[in-house]
Structures are given as structure tokens and as C-alpha cells.
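FAQ

Q: What does a record look like?
A: Structure on top, sequence underneath. For example:
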């Protein structure tokens, strides 16, 4: 372990200072832990997503968020790697160039729906503008919202903007939405479109949760009405368990804060639902990764180094 830490420190010190956090901010991982799964553009037995759908989802989110990112001092670039079979996604910064890397391998995974793929784009964007809590280096926090916060931002803010102008009622009518989701959405929202967005948002989270479940080779199904019972003692910056991540997407979908009520880089409770205001716990960031009023992000269980190690290119 000491040898690994020394190698990582040497690599970090060798980087130009302005690019210290510019590579994969997840350590050696992306939205999921590092994996060797590869789904090429001509592989069979995968979902039906086309390159055009892949680009349409990205373009829609990019159009919405480019000016919002510009207001925060960044220049958003979404790298469209359709032919790359990597089943992952990542975020990077190179000065004011804020990058999101989207891979065709993830988009083609059998668990991923178009809305699930949009949630991935939103998650990576959330690392850039998702607010607190942040991921931590050894000596300080990084520019990046941690994994759980990026998940929460994705459903709480980004997906709502993404779905805003769609015929959400018609889209949801074609989905098999669990009764529990419908009930909880009805408790949070009143208009038909708000209800439909809530349900569609939750189902996008389930698509992504099922990807995490598949990659971890878990047998137990993820369910909205069986939340992860774990409670962390300090906020965990790393990838939460699949059920915990589904809980986070569902919480974001249920939280009734306005999309225009933005999250903050200085106030961990701005623009979100919080227990301290006596808001329903199911709308708040789940305790399986989040410790209320813990501004930073601790280590938790694994997840690799908090800065990148060199990785050979995939052939």
C-alpha cells in the first residue's frame, strides 16, 4: 500500500499544477468502478440505442447547460466516443475547459434506456456544477462534486431541465411504473406533467441502478420501496452501493425544490431538500452515503486513489 501511495504521489507531483485534477476525477474509475467490459458498436444482443439517439441526448443536455456552465466560468465540452466500447463515463477539467466523456459502450449496455443514458450525462455534468459535498484529495477538497452529490444533482436539477418540454404524460404511459413510485410522486407533486416527470425521472434512475447491479454481478433486485438501511458516520465520496444510488436518484426525483433554485459551492443545504428543515426524509440525500452538514467527502469503502494513475490505452 505504501509503495502504491508513493507512486501516486510521484505521478501527481509530475503533473502541471493547473492540470492536477484534470484527469478522471474519480481516481481510476468513472461513473462506475473500473471494469474490463467492452461493448463495441457492432456487438449483438444489446439495447436498441443508435448513434443518432446517443448524439441527440448529449446535444439536448449540452444546449441547455453550455450557457449555465459559462456563467460559472467554464467552457463545457462533451466528448462523444460512440465507437469506444468502454462501459463508463467521466469528467475532467483542463483549466476552464470542462469536459464530460461519454462512451458508446455504456450507451449500448442492455440495462440502459435513453433516459438512463441522459442520467449518466447529467451525473458527469453534476461533478462540475453539482455543488457540495466535494470529493477530497489527501490535503483538500477537489473541484468535483462527489459521487452521491452528482447522482442527486442529476435527478434533482439536470433531468428536470432535460425533460421539461417533452410530452411526459405520453412517454410515461408506455412505462411500467411501480405503484410505490406513483404514490410517492403524488405526495410531492400535483400537476399531471410534474407527476409524469417525477415518474420518468425515477425510472431513469432504475435503468442506471440496474447497470450498477449488473456490473457488480448482484442477484437481489433493486426496489424503490426497500431503501438501503446503511448509515455512514462521515460523508462517503466514493461510489455508493447500487441500491443506495437508486435511493439517491429517487430522492432527487421527489424533492420539490425549483430547478431554478440552484445548488451552491458554499452552502451544502441550498437548493436541495434537507432533514434540518423537517422535509420528508425520502426527498433528502440518503444516509447510506451522506452525513448531514458534513461539507467534505471522506474515503469510505475503497474506490481507488483520489487522483489518477496512468492507464494504458485500450486497443
Amino acid at each position: 500500500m505504501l509503495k502504491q501511495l508513493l507512486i501516486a504521489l510521484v505521478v501527481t507531483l509530475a503533473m502541471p499544477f493547473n492540470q492536477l485534477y484534470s484527469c478522471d476525477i474519480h481516481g481510476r474509475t468513472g461513473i462506475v468502478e473500473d471494469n474490463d467490459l467492452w461493448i463495441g458498436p457492432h456487438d449483438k444482443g444489446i439495447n436498441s440505442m443508435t448513434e443518432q439517439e446517443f448524439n441527440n441526448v448529449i446535444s439536448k443536455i449540452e444546449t441547455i447547460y453550455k450557457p449555465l456552465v459559462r456563467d460559472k466560468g467554464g467552457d463545457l465540452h462533451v466528448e462523444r466516443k460512440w465507437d469506444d466500447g468502454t462501459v463508463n463515463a467521466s469528467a475532467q477539467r483542463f483549466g476552464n475547459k470542462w469536459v464530460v466523456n461519454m462512451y458508446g459502450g455504456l450507451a449500448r449496455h442492455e440495462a440502459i434506456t435513453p433516459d438512463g443514458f441522459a442520467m449518466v450525462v447529467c451525473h458527469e455534468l453534476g461533478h462540475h456544477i453539482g455543488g457540495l459535498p466535494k470529493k477530497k484529495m489527501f490535503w483538500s477538497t477537489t473541484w468535483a462534486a462527489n459521487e452521491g452529490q452528482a447522482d442527486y444533482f442529476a435527478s434533482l436539477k439536470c433531468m428536470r431541465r432535460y425533460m421539461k418540454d417533452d410530452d411526459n404524460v405520453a412517454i410515461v404511459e408506455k412505462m411500467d411504473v411501480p405503484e410505490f413510485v406513483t404514490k410517492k410522486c403524488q405526495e410531492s407533486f400535483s400537476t399531471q406533467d410534474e407527476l409524469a416527470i417525477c415518474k420518468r425521472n425515477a425510472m431513469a434512475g432504475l435503468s442506471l441502478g440496474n447497470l450498477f447491479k449488473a456490473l457488480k454481478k448482484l442477484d437481489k433486485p433493486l426496489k424503490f420501496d426497500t431503501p438501503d438501511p446503511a448509515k455512514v458516520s462521515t460523508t462517503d465520496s466514493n461510489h455508493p452501493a447500487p441500491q443506495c444510488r437508486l435511493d439517491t436518484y429517487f430522492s432527487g426525483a421527489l424533492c420539490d425544490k425549483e430547478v431554478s433554485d440552484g445548488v451552491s459551492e458554499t452552502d451544502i443545504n441550498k437548493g436541495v431538500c434537507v432533514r434540518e428543515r423537517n422535509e420528508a426524509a425520502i426527498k433528502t440525500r440518503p444516509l447510506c452515503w451522506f452525513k448531514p452538514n458534513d461539507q467534505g467527502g471522506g474515503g469510505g469503502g475503497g474506490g481507488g486513489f483520489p487522483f489518477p494513475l496512468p492507464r494504458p490505452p485500450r486497443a
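Q: Is there anything notable about this one?
A: Residues 19-283 form one domain.
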